[in-house]
Amino acid sequence: MVLGQLLQLLAQPAPGLFGLSAPARPSPALAHALALNPVPAGASGVVAQGGGPQAVVQLVSQARKQSTELKQKAETGNEKVVVEVLALMFQSILTEERIPPAVRVWFARLQVPVLRVALAEPAFFSNPDHPARKLIDRMGACAMGFDAAAINGSALEAEIRRIVQVIEQYPETGSRVFQLVYDEFEKFLSRFLTEKQTTARVVSVAQQVEQKAVLTIQYTIELRNLLRDVPVRDEIREFLFRTWAEVLALSAVRHGAQHADTVAYKHAAANLVWAVSAKPKRSDRARLIQNLPTLLRQLRQGLTLMGVDGAAQNAQIKVLTDTLADAFQSKTAAIPQAHLDAMVERLVNLEDLMGDATLGEVPLNVENVEMLLGIDASSIHVLADNGARVDDAMLAWAQELQPGAWYTLDHNGGAAHVQYIWQSQRNQLHLFAAVDGRSYLIQLHRLAAYLQAGLLVVQDAEGLTLRATRAALAKLDANPERLLG
Fold first, then answer.
1. I want to staple 416 with a disulfide (CB 3.0 to 4.6 A). Which of 147, 150, 314, 409 is the partner?
2. Helix crossing, 197-226 with 337-348: angle to 10°?
3. Beta carbons of 295 and 271 less than 8 angstroms apart
4. What is the predicted pLDDT for the residue at 220?
C-alpha cells in the first residue's frame, strides 16, 4: 500500500517530472555534488567521538542540510523528488530510538550511497527485496534489541561499520555492492549469534537432540525390518524398539557411529535376539551361559548411558532375564546364526545406508537436554510440542523467521525480550536468547502455536525502509510543496 502510494507519487505528472521507469544517471551538477560530499558534514568526527544521542541529533541536522544542497543541484523534477523522499526516509531511520545511536551514526553515512542507487535504479522504491533495502532492514532489525552500552565496541557494531566503509569505497557499483555486503552480513550473523560460549553449547546440544531423534527413528525402523520374520517375544521387541534404538542413537551422537562402544551396543542387540531364542542344543545353552555376563554388562551400560539406573534399571533387566530363562528351556527351533550375522552387519553399517529421515516430533524435554548437555539446564527453557493445532500458514511462517530479529516472548505470564539466533538443520528446533542469559529452545509446532496465539511478536514487523517510506509519505501529504522546492 505504502509503496503503491510512493510509486503513484513518483509517476504523477508535474513540470519536469516523469515516471521512473528506467535507470538513469544523475545530472552532471548533482553527480558532482554527490562525489564532492559523500557523507554529511562532520559525520566522520561524530563517529570518531563515539556516537551518542546528541551526535545523532547533530547528524540529522547535517543530513537535512546536505539534502537541501543536493536538491538545489538537481536539474530535473524527478531528481528533486528522489532526493527529498530519500532525505525524509533517512530522517525517519536516524530518529528510530529503538536502534542504538552508535548504529544510527553509521546509517547516516549510507544516505548518499543509497541516493545514488535510488536515482539509477527505480526498483529501489518498488521492490522491498532490493539489496539496499534488505541490507538496511536486516542491520536495523539485528541492532534494534541492543542498548547503547551493549552494542558499543561489539562485533555487530564493527561489522556494520565495515559494511558501510565497503559501500563507500565502491560508489559506482550500484546495487551490486549492497548485495555483496548483504550476503557477507548473513554469513557474519551465522557466526555472531552463536559465538557466546553458553549459546554455542546450547546450539550444540540442540543439534545433538535433533540428530539423536533422527537416528532413533532410523534404528527403530531398521530393527523392525530385521525382526519382521524372526520369532522374538513381544517383551524383547518392545525393549529393542523403545529403549535400545535410543541407546544406539545416543551413543552414535556422543561417540560416533563406528566408536567401539556404539558397535558393541549394535552387537548386543543381535546377541540379545539370539539369547532369547530357543536353545534346543546343549552347545547353544553352554554358549549362552558363557556369554550372558558380558551381554548383561553391555545392557546395563547402555541403560546407564540413557540415564536409567537403580531400581528402574533392575526392573528392565529382570524382564530380560526372565525371558532368557524361558528361552533356555524352550525346545523350538533356534534362530539361524547366518541371520544374526546379517543383522549385525546391517546395524554396524546402517549409517552408510541412511537417507534423510522424515522427522516428526522430536522427543524434546529438559531431561533430554540436560543429559546431552551434561550440566544443569535451569537457564534453558524447553518448549516442546504439546499438540496444539496450528494453521499451515503459521508453520510456514515459523520456518521463515530470520536469525537476528528481536521478539517479545510471552512465556508463563512473563514477557521476555529475545533474539532469534538459530534453527536446526531440519528446521525442527529453534533457539531464542534473552539479554539476561536465558535461552528458549522451541520445537517447530510449538513455535507456530506461539506465533498464532500472539505470544511471540516480532518487534519490527514492517522493516526500517517500509516504515521510513510511510513516514516520508505522511510528511509529503502534509506539505507536498517541499518536493520541488
1. 409
2. 160
3. yes
4. 84
Q: 481 CB contacts (<8 Å, ≥6 apart)? A: none
User: How would CATH label the architecture of 372-459?
Assistant: Roll (2.30)
DSSP 340-400: HHHHHHHHHTHHHH------------HHHHHHHH-S--TTEEEE--------HHHHHHHTT
Model-wide pTM > 0.90: no
Q: What is the pLDDT of residue 269?
A: 87
pLDDT value of position 382: 83
Q: Which grid cell is 306?
A: 540413557
Q: Which of 316, 339, 153 is nearest to 230 (CA)?
A: 339
CB atoms within 10 A of CB 326: 13
Q: Is 130 helix (H, G, I), strand (E, B) or coil?
A: coil
- CB-based contact 442:448 (threshold 8 Å): no
Close Cβ partners of 45 (under 8 Å, ≥ 6 residues apart)? none
Whole-angstrom Cα distance, residue 297 to residue 105?
66
CB 379 within 8 A of CB 438: yes
- For the stretch 209-233, what's the b/e string if a residue is b when 16 or more beta carbons lie within 10 angstroms of its beta carbon? bbbbbbbbbbbbebbeebbeeeebe
Cβ-contact 115, 136 below 8 angstroms:
no
Rounded mean pLDDT for each run of 10 residues along the chain, 485 residues in total = 55 42 68 72 50 71 83 82 90 90 90 91 86 95 83 88 93 89 94 81 78 81 78 84 89 87 88 79 81 91 89 90 76 63 67 46 56 59 85 93 93 90 85 85 91 94 89 86 70
Cell of 187: 554469513
Which class for 18: exposed (0-12), middle (13-18), buried (19 or more C-beta within 10 A)? middle
Domain parsing of the chain, residue ranges: 2-192+465-483, 200-353, 372-459
Query: How many Å apart are CA 160 and CA 163, to the nearest integer?
Result: 5
Task: Convert 455-478 to b/e letters by CB count within 10 Å (16 or more is b).
Answer: ebeeebeebbbbbbbbbbbeebee
Yes or no: say if 289 and 282 are a contact pair by the CB < 8 Å rule: no
Instruction: Residue 168: count other Cβ atoms within 10 Å of its Cβ.
Output: 15
> Following DSSP, what letter does each residue of 137-197 receive, concatenated?
HHHHHHHTT--HHHHTT-HHHHHHHHHHHHHHH-TTSTHHHHHHHHHHHHHHHHHHTT-SH
